[in-house]
Structures are given as C-alpha cells and as structure tokens.
Amino acid sequence: MKVKIGDRLVGEDEPCFITVDIGINHNGSLDIAKQLIGWAYKLGCDAVKFQKRTVEVVYTKEELDRPRESPFGITNRDLKEGLEFGLSEYQQIDDYCHKLGILWLASCWDMGSVNFLQQFNPPCYKIASPCLTDDALLKHTRAKGRPIILSTGMSTIEQIDHAVDILGQENLIILHCTSTYPANIGELNLKVIPFLKERYRCPIGYSGHEVGIPTTIAATALGAKMIERHITLDRSMWGSDQSASVEPIGVERLVRYTHAVERAMGDGIKRVYESELPIMKKLRR
After folding, report:
1. DSSP state for residue 73 in the 8-state scheme
2. Contact between 21 and 228 (Cβ < 8 Å)
3. What is the distance of C-alpha 232 from the center of its chain?
4. Which residues lie below 8 Å from residue 167, measured CB to CB, with a gap of 6+?
C-alpha cells in the first residue's frame, strides 16, 4: 500500500520520504523558521513540519499559570504563547515554502488547529505521539480526507491498534518513535519497524529523537519509508528540543546516507554482476 504526499508516493519501492521537524526550534522567530526551511530545501529534504496548538485548549489554566522562566516571561503561558505562530506567520511560511518548492505540514494538537491548517491545503496531517489516544481528534482529523502520519511514541500496541481502528489503514503512515528528548540509544527498539510493517500493512517510518544519525539511517535498512528528525541551526541554542535535533551538516549526511543505504539494499536476488566477470576470470579457482 502506498500513500501520496504532495506529488510523492510513500511506500514500498519508493525513495524514503525525509521530513525535518522544525517544531518549536524556531524559538518564536519567523526568520529562524525561514532559515531552517531554506536549509531543508537546500539539503534535499522532502518536507518541513511545524507544530500547531491552541494553547488554551491543549493546556489547563493551572498548567499555563505555572511559574516557568523563559525568554518570553515567567509563566508557562508566556512560553507557550511565545512559541506559537499565528495566521500571519503561517501565511509567510506557506508563501516561502511554495516559492522554494518544498512541502510543509504540521502536527495539530487540537481540533481548532486542524481547522486552522485546512486553509493552507496541507498535503497531509500529522498526529503527534501525545495525541494518539485522543479519539475525538483522530476522528476530526480523518474527516478532513487527507493522508495522516501517526507517530507512536509512549504508546502500547493496544493503543496503536485502537488508533488505527479509528483512522483506518488507507492513506495512513505510521512512525515508530521513542518520546524522550534526547532518546537513549538502548531504548530506540528499531526492530519494531518490521513488526509494525507486518501488523498494519501500511507504510511504516521512523521519527527519531536520539543524538546522531547512524541509528536513523539503520531504520531505513529495517524498512522505514519515511524518516523524520528535528532540525536546528545549533544544538546549543535555547529550547527543549534542540539537544535532540540535527544541525544542517547532520541533515546533509542523513539525506545522503539514507538514499545510499536504499540503493545498497537491492532486490534480495543473488546474482553475478557484469562488473564481477573480469575478477571472476582472473581469480576463480
């Protein structure tokens, strides 16, 4: 089964679809967001992703009023509102991505955010791992009739089964994920990728939060047809997701090595290549 995202197909016998998650690594700056979009385009990524939340819906008043110092103020509300882009910013993001020719999407944490994003004709919707058990959000998102990417961090197999029952397997991509920032290498459990592929019969990908890129590239060898990693200008920048992100030089290697591994995998049929014939003639006993 394949899923069409924009003008690209995701699934078996298709090149791995590589998304970089800008998320909140823009730190409330449209200029930083545009820099990250520009790097993603330059480095050959297929899409960039943001996060969209209606702050008052996603968080309780008690949580928003909790003290938390940040560049935006002294409460959690100051932080969440400072990191949230609105209509003007997303209009500029939409214009910039169209100008460059790169897809953009967002993980929507509430139904209002899904409705907000709809005006931009997104190629798909992303369900973030924390939202996997929000049945109402799953149904509302599916009702929009667009492909869905479902991230599965901090979820049991029973919870994933339930979410897939709601969403259906058509036009669905499931991402294996471990939701710690950064994730411990010993907890990535990449062997879950072929398990999910066998269980759900839809394209399976990998959303990584670990330090470094080798394990993300390994996910490709295990059958991941979509890769998602957070991107940052500098891992030392302020922000909760920066340390689990990849700088542009790492993204360049990720794109290049991922597609190299895909080419190296071949078709699984043992053969003698023409390039081997002269060596065979010289060395075979």
Report:
1. E
2. yes
3. 14
4. 138, 142, 148, 150
Please state the pTM of the whole predicted model. Answer: 0.95
Architecture of the CATH domain 3-283? Alpha-Beta Barrel (3.20)
Q: Is 233 exposed, middle or buried (0-12, 13-18, 19+ CB in 10 A)?
A: middle
DSSP 131: G
Q: 203 Cβ partners below 8 Å, 6+ apart?
A: 1, 2, 3, 10, 11, 12, 172, 173, 174, 225, 226
pLDDT in tens, 11-70: 999 999 999 999 999 999 999 999 999 999 999 999 999 999 999 999 999 999 999 999
Amino acid at 186: G
Residue spans per domain, the chain: 3-283
Burial letters for 152-165: b for 16+ Cβ neighbours within 10 Å, e otherwise? bbebeeeebebbbe
Q: Cβ(37)–Cβ(93) under 8 Å?
A: yes
Q: Which residues contact 98 (CB under 8 A, 6 or more apart)?
A: none
Other Cβ atoms closer than 10 A to 126: 27
